[in-house]
From TrEMBL:
<dbReference type="GO" id="GO:0030170">
    <property type="term" value="F:pyridoxal phosphate binding"/>
</dbReference>
<dbReference type="GO" id="GO:0019752">
    <property type="term" value="P:carboxylic acid metabolic process"/>
</dbReference>
<dbReference type="InterPro" id="IPR002129">
    <property type="entry name" value="PyrdxlP-dep_de-COase"/>
</dbReference>
<dbReference type="InterPro" id="IPR015424">
    <property type="entry name" value="PyrdxlP-dep_Trfase"/>
</dbReference>
<dbReference type="GO" id="GO:0005737">
    <property type="term" value="C:cytoplasm"/>
</dbReference>
<comment type="similarity">
    <text>Belongs to the group II decarboxylase family.</text>
</comment>
<keyword id="KW-0210">Decarboxylase</keyword>
<dbReference type="Pfam" id="PF00282">
    <property type="entry name" value="Pyridoxal_deC"/>
</dbReference>
<dbReference type="InterPro" id="IPR015421">
    <property type="entry name" value="PyrdxlP-dep_Trfase_major"/>
</dbReference>
<keyword id="KW-0663">Pyridoxal phosphate</keyword>
<protein>
    <recommendedName>
        <fullName>Aspartate aminotransferase family protein</fullName>
    </recommendedName>
</protein>
<keyword id="KW-0456">Lyase</keyword>
<feature type="modified residue" description="N6-(pyridoxal phosphate)lysine">
    <location>
        <position position="336"/>
    </location>
</feature>
<dbReference type="GO" id="GO:0004058">
    <property type="term" value="F:aromatic-L-amino-acid decarboxylase activity"/>
</dbReference>
<dbReference type="InterPro" id="IPR015422">
    <property type="entry name" value="PyrdxlP-dep_Trfase_small"/>
</dbReference>
Length: 551
């Protein structure tokens, strides 16, 4: 490969048409290949490809950098061989919050890549800086933060936001922890159903997971605030300092929504009583925060003409979600309900000035920022170089608008309401295990005999009983997983913890998950999905009967 050929691997320098067409041709070929494999009746692009046990070992053995570049055509062929069998977000894709990237999201991400600016500094990435400031303001206004006070940045996922919130929580109470290290008596709190992001964060900050206190949850899978109060008080009385409470507003498995208002009241009351500094509350709204798009919806006039039960369901969600602005920080995972590609998460801070506590000194950043030119330097993020994922967010917010988001978010609720009704009618011995939580997710659990959910959730079942029911469901997960190319259901081995009669430990509940996430999953898609499920369950029961009659 000569040097000119190397140059031809880049977009043109002068904007000539020939090279533009060449690039577009490659893009078209990619889309064509994907399109040729699409089938609305499957959840994969063409048949799924099973991976043998030594699949990855073989890749390791056979992969090495070619001596000569293989040429664009062949490179593309190789690349596109990764596509067949890939999961795809058709109407039958109901596994988890893994959305299809929308066209505005894709275009925003493409512009990010084409400009390839560095979002670290506006001198290097002015487009990213401008889009980032705009989306921070847009989302601040939406949740009810004062956009003149709030600030934020795009970061590495909902996980990154939980971590950034904790960094801030520590810095607010211990501004010198950056230099001196953290005290050894700090504590963090979240519900048992919170995302494991906080676990990783307490590990990484050196607080230690023994200092992560898990709070019990209620039947609606939200935090039991009385238990929070008791556990915080116990920590304080032993000389511990609560620094961080994560309120999950929309748990990833059950869509339980913690009551931020009540959590804030408890925190304020305790810190006043004991003369402590305020505890930083982070709303882990990565998933559910998008329902803030209904904060100003007129549910009485109902301009979108939503069905009564959908309207009521959304109103129910709003009752909790409208308090998001009470949190000191929060997050929007745009790669979830924001309909943008990975990775585009927005971390927002109510009092933006606090981020100054995390900023680097001028002395420490000799080659960026602090010049007469450029005025946007994100020295407070944990990342150094940053991708401008705000461009995808900006594009999606403009293209969908509040109403577009309301439509798609309402449809998730509509589909789930239909699914719940029809599931209970179609299949015996099944219980919906997040009945109180209207939203985009339905969790459900099968029983070998009669339904025991009421007993289980009230803490009246034994360990053996729950173990048997969990085993029954886990074997069914395996079966559903094998056929995920047809309908791709989700599952979780720990939707929630429940009390049991024969021990003081709480015990996990395994459930199947229906997560309506595709824009193509509508009420009409529910019957075929249920027909598939019913058939799988019946075959499963037959198989089990055979196995058990052999024993
Ligand atoms: C998805 C999710 C996370 C993690 O977000 P990533 O973007 O995967 O890092 C954290 N918390 C909640 C509630 C989530 O739903």
């Amino acid at each position: 490969m000569n040097f000119q050929e190397v140059q031809s691997l880049f977009p043109s320098e002068d904007g000539n048409e020939e090279r533009r067409k060449q690039l577009l041709g490659f893009v078209e070929k990619m889309i064509q290949t994907i399109d040729s494999l699409k089938d609305p009746q499957r959840a994969t692009l063409g048949p799924m490809r099973e991976r043998s046990d030594d699949f990855y070992k073989q890749l390791i053995r056979t992969s090495k950098v070619p001596e000569q570049g293989i040429g664009m055509q062949q490179m593309l062929e190789e690349l596109l061989q990764l596509v067949p069998g890939h999961p795809y977000h058709t109407r039958n894709f109901v596994t988890n919050v893994l959305p299809m990237a929308s066209i505005p999201g894709i275009l925003g991400a493409l512009l990010t890549t084409l400009l390839n600016g560095n979002n670290l500094w506006d001198v290097y990435g002015p487009a990213g800086a401008e889009a980032e400031v705009r989306v921070i303001a847009m989302m601040s206004k939406l949740v009810g933060y004062d956009e003149k006070q709030s600030w934020g940045y795009t970061t590495w996922g909902g996980q990154g936001a939980v971590f950034s919130g904790l960094r801030l929580a520590i810095a607010k109470q211990f501004p010198h922890a950056k230099e001196k290290g953290i005290p050894n008596n700090l504590y963090c709190f979240a519900s048992e159903n919170a995302h494991y992001s906080l676990l990783k964060s307490v590990e990484a900050t050196g607080i230690g997971s023994d200092h992560l206190v898990l709070v019990r949850t209620q039947k609606d899978h939200s935090m039991d605030v009385a238990d929070l109060q008791a556990k915080m008080e116990a920590v304080i009385q032993k000389g511990g300092i609560p620094v961080y409470v994560v309120a999950t507003t929309g748990t990833t498995d059950s869509f339980g929504i913690d009551d931020i208002q009540a959590i804030k009241d408890v925190c304020d009351e305790l810190t006043m009583k004991y003369g402590l500094k305020p505890v930083h509350i982070h709303a882990d709204s990565a998933l559910g925060g998008f329902y803030s798009f209904f904060n100003h919806y007129d549910f009485t006039a109902n301009p979108l003409k939503l069905e009564e039960e959908v309207n009521d369901g959304l109103l129910h969600i709003r009752e909790r979600m409208q308090h998001l602005h009470l949190a000191d920080s929060l997050c929007f995972d745009f790669q979830k309900f924001g309909q943008t590609p990975y990775l585009s998460s927005l971390f927002l801070v109510k009092n933006g000035k606090d981020l100054g506590l995390l900023d680097l000194n001028e002395f420490e950043t000799p080659y960026v920022g602090n010049r007469g030119y450029g005025s946007y330097h994100t020295g407070y993020t944990l990342e150094c170089s940053r991708m401008s994922s705000s461009l995808a967010i900006y594009a999606a917010l403009l293209a969908f608008g509040i109403e577009g988001y309301q439509q798609i978010l309402a449809n998730y609720v509509r589909v789930n309401l239909a699914f719940r009704k029809k599931l209970l009618a179609a299949i015996p011995n099944v219980a919906i295990t997040n009945e109180a939580n209207i939203g985009p997710i339905t969790t459900f659990r099968f029983y070998p005999g009669t339904v025991e959910w009421a007993e289980e959730i009230s803490g009246k079942a034994s360990r053996a009983q729950i173990e048997r029911n969990n085993a029954w469901n886990k074997r069914l997960f395996e079966r559903l997983g094998e056929h995920r190319d047809q309908v791709f259901f989700g599952d979780t081995t720990k939707q929630c913890l429940v009390d049991i009669i024969d021990s003081s430990e709480r015990y996990p509940i395994a459930v199947v998950k229906f997560f309506s996430i595709s824009p193509y999953t509508t009420v009409e898609s529910v019957d075929p999905i249920l027909a598939f499920l019913k058939e799988q369950v019946e075959q499963y029961i037959n198989e089990r009967m055979k196995v058990e009659s052999h024993v």
